Amino acid sequence: MRDAADGDGFNDSAWDNFSGWVADHADIIKAIHSVLQKITLALSLLSFVFPVLAPFALAAAALTAGVGLVLAATGQMSWLEFGVDLLAVATMGVGAAASRTIAGVMTALKGTRVARLAAQGSPNALRVVTGSFNGVLKGRVAVKLGPLTVKNAPRWLEAYSAKGITNAPFLRVVQSAKAGAGGPLDDILLGIGKQEMAKLRLAGTVNLVASQTDKLFSTYAPTLMNVLPETVTDVVPDGVRDFLADGDSLHRATTWRIGS
C-alpha cells in the first residue's frame, strides 16, 4: 500500500520520486553494492602487504558505504548493514593513517639511532643501525601448499597479522633491534609507534565484532536454532526463539525508509 501511495504520481516529493527510482532498480544497485564489498575486502587484504593499495581500499570502502546509505535511506537495505559498511570505512581510515605514522616513526627512529651512535664515536653508524634493522627480518622460508609454493610465507603472514608490511618490521625493531637504541627521543618515537599499533588493533577488533554480530543474527543463530532439538529450543521464550530462528528478523527490524 505504501509503495502504491508513493507511486501514484500525486503530491510526491523529489525524495519520493528518488526512493521510487531506487526501488525500481534495487536489484541492480544491490548487485553493485555486493561487488563493491568484495572489491573492498580484496583491496584491504592486499593493502596489508602492498601499502600503496591502502588509498584505493579506503576509496572502495567509502563508495560501498555511499551506495549502502542510498539503499538504507530508501528502505532497500537495513541500517545495520549500512553501519557495518560505515565501520569498514572508519577502521580502514584509522588503519591507513596509523600505518603512515608508523612508517614515519621507522624513518625517524633509524635517523635518531644513527645520530646517537655517531655521537658516541661509531665510525660506521649508518651501517651498524641498518644492519640492526635488517637483522631482525624473518628468514626467507618457502611453504608448500600442495602444488603451490609460497615464498617468504612467514613475512606475508606476519604482515597480515600486524595489519601492514611496514608495521611488522616496526614490531620486530621494537623487540630486537638495539643498535643505537636508548634515550628520551628514542623512547618517545617507540611510544608513538606503539600507540598507532594499538589503534590498528582496536580498529580491527571493532570491525570484526560488528561484522560477526551481523553474522550471528543473520546466519549462525538461525542455523543453530534449526539444528538443536526442540527440547533445547523450547526453553527459549517464544518471542526470542522466533526472532533467533528467522535470519532476516534483525535486518527487518533495522530497515526503514527515511520519510516513511
Write up this protein.
The structure is a single chain. This protein is mainly α and 260 residues long. 73% of the residues lie in helices and 2% in strands. It contains 12 helices and 2 strands. It has helices at 2-6, 14-24, 26-49, 54-73, 79-119, 125-134, 153-161, 167-176, 184-227, 230-233, 238-245, 249-253, and strands spanning 143-145, 148-150. It has a two-stranded antiparallel ribbon with strand order 1-2. Helix 3 (26-49) packs antiparallel against helix 4, helix 4 (54-73) packs antiparallel against helix 5 (79-119) and helix 5 (79-119) packs antiparallel against helix 9. The longest helix has 44 residues, at 184-227. It is elongated, with a radius of gyration of 26 Å.
Question: What overall form do the CA principal axes indicate?
Answer: elongated
Q: What percent strand?
A: under 5%
Succession of helices and strands: HHHHHHEEHHHHHH
Structural class: mainly alpha
The proportion of residues forming helix, as a percent range, comes to: over 70%
